[in-house]
Amino acid sequence: PAWLRRLCGQLLSERLMRPNGVQAVVRGIVEGTGAGGAGAEAAAVDWRKCDAVAKVLASCPQQCLSLEDYYCLVCPQILDLLHIQDKLTARQFQRVATTTLLTMARGHPQLAEQHLLRPLLAPLLRCSES
C-alpha cells in the first residue's frame, strides 16, 4: 500500500541522515549476500542489491531541506564505506560506494566533486603537489 511505502521511505531517509546511518542501511540490505555461493547467479543478485542500495543513497529524500545538506551528511559516510576491514563486507560496501559515487557524479557533478571526489583524491593531490 502507498501509506506503507511512504512510511518505509520516511524511516529509511531518517536513518540515512543519522551518524553511521549509511553503513547501517547498507549492512541491513546487503548483509548475507554473496556468502552462500560463488556462482554467477549469486554474483548477479549481489550486484543488483548493491546497485539498488546505491540508487537509494544517491536520491535526496523529501525530508532533507536541500540537496547540499544531504550531500554534506551522506557523502562522508559513503567514503567511510571504502574503509571497512572485513573482506567479504568490504567488497560489497565498495561496490555500493563506487556505484553511488558514479550515480551522484552523473546527477550532480559539482556537489559530487566537492563532497566525494575532492576528499577521495586529496591524498593523491597532496603527493603530486610536493
TrEMBL record:
It holds the Pfam family ARM_TANGO6. InterPro entries: HEAT_TANGO6, TANGO6/Rtp1. It comes from the Eukaryota. GO terms for biological process: protein secretion. Residues 16-129 form the TANGO6 HEAT repeat domain. This is TNG6 protein. It comes from Hemiprocne comata.
